[in-house]
Amino acid sequence: MQVTETLNEGLKRGYAITVTAAELDAKVNEKLVEAQPGIEMKGFRKGKVPMALLKKQYGERLMGEAMQETIDGAMNKHFEDSGDRPAMQPKVEMKDGDNWKPGSDVEVEMSYEALPEIPEVDLKSISLEKLIVKAGEADVDEALANLAETAQDFAAREEGAASEDGDQVVIDFLGKVDDVAFDGGAGEDYPLTLGSNSFIPGFEEQLVGLKAGEEKDVKVTFPAEYGAENLAGKDAVFACTVKEVKAPVAAELNDELAKKFGAEDLDGLKSQISERLEAEYAGASRAVMKRATLDALDELVSFDLPPSLLEAEAGQIAHQLWHEDNPEVEGHDHPEIETTEEHTSLATRRVRLGLLLAELGQKAEVEVTDAEMTQAIMGQARQYPGQEREFFEFVQKNAQMQQQLRAPIFEDKIIDYVFELATVAEKEVSKDDLQKAVEALEEE
């Protein structure tokens, strides 16, 4: 076998690989010898079929396997000897492929873009600022008030009072389409919160301003995409009787409220809220520090990037941004999206940092554990209530999905590694200052 370099320009590499007919024939014979003991053929005992007959019967089929294995072996040996790491799957073409005849040498052309050498980075030279926000009494009180609203109850309004948006009305109703009642269109003593949008669009607004004992025909049109096909897009009339009108009453901030949220008493609930708020602040602070870390790393390194990776990343960015601007379009049924300098600039940063982080992770022997992967899968599975097992099995069989879940965990562990080596100064700031820092990230 002969491997000859044909291109070495920047990160682009090209090689001509020649596998002689004798090497292929030897590989086929090797495969036949391995298979011979298990082969049965009429007129011969198992394992006693003559090699010449086996070669005539199976040689042509085994030639393709031998060819592929030999070429793969040559490629693997090349990468092992050269130390090259291809940026993407190498392009392999067989010269005179359709015209190749058994007994001839096989000539293959292989081309790829090599991943660049990543320069050493002095992580200890990076200086970072960690924003610290304490949960103040006012923040806890505000969160408590929000909890009280979610735990609100309703109390009867004074006699003769008209309903308002946000009130709860207790109603009897009967819905008809073309004067014919339909399944699921009737209810008695139904508590409906006005403004909750739990009924058909336009329904709840028509019950605002009514008093207990009043009746009203509510006229609505079912949405075109309504789940029941026999009702979708149809006009309907609901005969409604208001039986009670109730105003929202916020829950009292006391130990009873605390117990509803799993705390022993109000002080315990306040402590829980304080811890939750500070965890949220810490998460936001980490996001700000992570961006600062990536900015610092981006400034520290410079190296050539594989054009194929840049092109693929720029195309993905352009595609994603186009869909954000055109959310009504699903799938790929749209005109070809051209990349711009802005897309390429973003792609350059992403690819450079991606390669650098991968290198740092490899040198630091960063690994994503099975437990971390299981936790990530379970977190995603919660988005599909009742189908958690099916989702888990889907991920186990889908390598691409596994990589999508593993990548952010791997990146965060590398970032944590950088945090440990960098110089980090803590700075206590207000919640508003932290919010401004987070908003600045979103604007970039």
TrEMBL record:
<keyword id="KW-0131">Cell cycle</keyword>
<dbReference type="InterPro" id="IPR001179">
    <property type="entry name" value="PPIase_FKBP_dom"/>
</dbReference>
<comment type="similarity">
    <text>Belongs to the FKBP-type PPIase family. Tig subfamily.</text>
</comment>
<dbReference type="InterPro" id="IPR008881">
    <property type="entry name" value="Trigger_fac_ribosome-bd_bac"/>
</dbReference>
<keyword id="KW-0697">Rotamase</keyword>
<protein>
    <recommendedName>
        <fullName>Trigger factor</fullName>
        <ecNumber>5.2.1.8</ecNumber>
    </recommendedName>
</protein>
<dbReference type="InterPro" id="IPR046357">
    <property type="entry name" value="PPIase_dom_sf"/>
</dbReference>
<comment type="function">
    <text>Involved in protein export. Acts as a chaperone by maintaining the newly synthesized protein in an open conformation. Functions as a peptidyl-prolyl cis-trans isomerase.</text>
</comment>
<dbReference type="InterPro" id="IPR036611">
    <property type="entry name" value="Trigger_fac_ribosome-bd_sf"/>
</dbReference>
<dbReference type="Pfam" id="PF05697">
    <property type="entry name" value="Trigger_N"/>
</dbReference>
<dbReference type="InterPro" id="IPR037041">
    <property type="entry name" value="Trigger_fac_C_sf"/>
</dbReference>
<dbReference type="InterPro" id="IPR027304">
    <property type="entry name" value="Trigger_fact/SurA_dom_sf"/>
</dbReference>
<keyword id="KW-0963">Cytoplasm</keyword>
<keyword id="KW-0143">Chaperone</keyword>
<dbReference type="InterPro" id="IPR005215">
    <property type="entry name" value="Trig_fac"/>
</dbReference>
<keyword id="KW-0132">Cell division</keyword>
<dbReference type="Pfam" id="PF05698">
    <property type="entry name" value="Trigger_C"/>
</dbReference>
<dbReference type="InterPro" id="IPR008880">
    <property type="entry name" value="Trigger_fac_C"/>
</dbReference>
<feature type="region of interest" description="Disordered">
    <location>
        <begin position="81"/>
        <end position="103"/>
    </location>
</feature>
<feature type="domain" description="PPIase FKBP-type">
    <location>
        <begin position="166"/>
        <end position="248"/>
    </location>
</feature>
<keyword id="KW-0413">Isomerase</keyword>
<dbReference type="Pfam" id="PF00254">
    <property type="entry name" value="FKBP_C"/>
</dbReference>
